[in-house]
């Protein structure tokens, strides 16, 4: 027996889709400390995985940052246990991904971007450097890890957030890295998983 769906039934079914998606949207909106960017882009938010700092660090110390490549998220715990989570860009390939423990060794508002030798080898047309401004791939703020050429930084290209699109760094929306920047102290521990 063939069953036909009327146009009215089809439209009613389509109208019900937002209600079915509501639980995941509510989960996405209830991420402790996550402030949705004003850009309107929200892709990948619902794939965040809840983490506990104690699963990755012995103490909070000056604070802790967990960069999760699989969920494309950066979690930050302050020394007082406060928590924030942000969507990030992640390295394009596993070869560019460095995992393990590091720490923040330097911070810069208005960073200058200097491509690495391997970047320039892959693309000889890259400039020697890019001063702060709208064309700078590091966005408005940068926090440097003790691993050379690995950073947590902003980006003007919001299409990169939530995607494998970097050469090893973790990029955040500019307004979110500006929010995180003053909270992170030099010496904050970082783990990339």
Supply the key terms:
single chain; 193 residues; alpha/beta; 8-stranded mixed β-sheet; two-stranded parallel sheet; 19% helix; 25% strand; globular
Question: Care to describe what's here?
Answer:
- The protein has 3 helices and 10 strands; from the N terminus they run αβββββαββββαβ.
- It has helices spanning 7-29, 117-122, 174-180, and strands at residues 64-68, 73-77, 83-87, 90-91, 100-109, 141-145, 151-155, 164-166, 170-173, 189-192.
- β6 (141-145) and β7 form a beta hairpin.
- The chain is globular, with a radius of gyration of 20 Å.
- Mean pLDDT is 82; it is low at 14-46.
Average predicted local confidence, pLDDT: 82
| Cα separation of the termini | 53 Å
**By helix and strand content, what is the structural category?**
alpha/beta
Shape: globular
Tell me the series of helices and strands, N- to C-terminal.
HEEEEEHEEEEHE
Unreliable residue runs? 14-46
Tally of separate helices:
3
Helix content: 10-25%
Sheet with the most strands: spatial strand order = 3-2-1-10-5-6-7-9
* C-alpha Rg (nearest Å): 20 Å
- How many E strands? 10
Concise account of the structure shown:
The protein is α/β, with parallel strands linked by helices and 193 residues long. 19% of the residues lie in helices and 25% in strands.
Per-chain topology:
Elements: H1 7-29, E1 64-68, E2 73-77, E3 83-87, E4 90-91, E5 100-109, H2 117-122, E6 141-145, E7 151-155, E8 164-166, E9 170-173, H3 174-180, E10 189-192
Parallel strand pairs: 1-10, 4-8, 7-9
Antiparallel strand pairs: 1-2, 2-3, 5-6, 5-10, 6-7
């Amino acid at each position: 027996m063939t069953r036909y769906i009327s146009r009215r039934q089809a439209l009613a079914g389509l109208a019900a889709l937002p209600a079915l998606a509501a639980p995941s949207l509510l989960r996405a909106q209830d991420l402790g400390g996550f402030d949705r960017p004003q850009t309107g882009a929200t892709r990948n938010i619902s794939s965040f995985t809840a983490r506990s700092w104690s699963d990755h660090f012995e103490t909070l110390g000056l604070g802790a940052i967990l960069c999760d490549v699989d969920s494309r998220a950066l979690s930050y715990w302050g020394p007082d246990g406060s928590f924030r989570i942000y969507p990030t860009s992640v390295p394009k390939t596993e070869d560019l991904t460095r995992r393990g423990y590091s720490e923040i060794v330097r911070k810069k508002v208005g960073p200058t971007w200097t491509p690495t030798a391997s970047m320039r080898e892959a693309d000889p047309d890259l400039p020697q450097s890019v001063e702060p401004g709208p064309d700078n791939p590091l966005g408005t703020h940068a926090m440097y890890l003790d691993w050379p050429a690995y950073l947590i930084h902003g980006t003007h290209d919001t299409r990169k957030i939530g995607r494998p699109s970097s050469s090893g760094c973790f990029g955040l929306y500019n307004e979110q890295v500006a929010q995180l920047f003053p909270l992170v102290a030099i010496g904050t521990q970082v783990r990339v998983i």
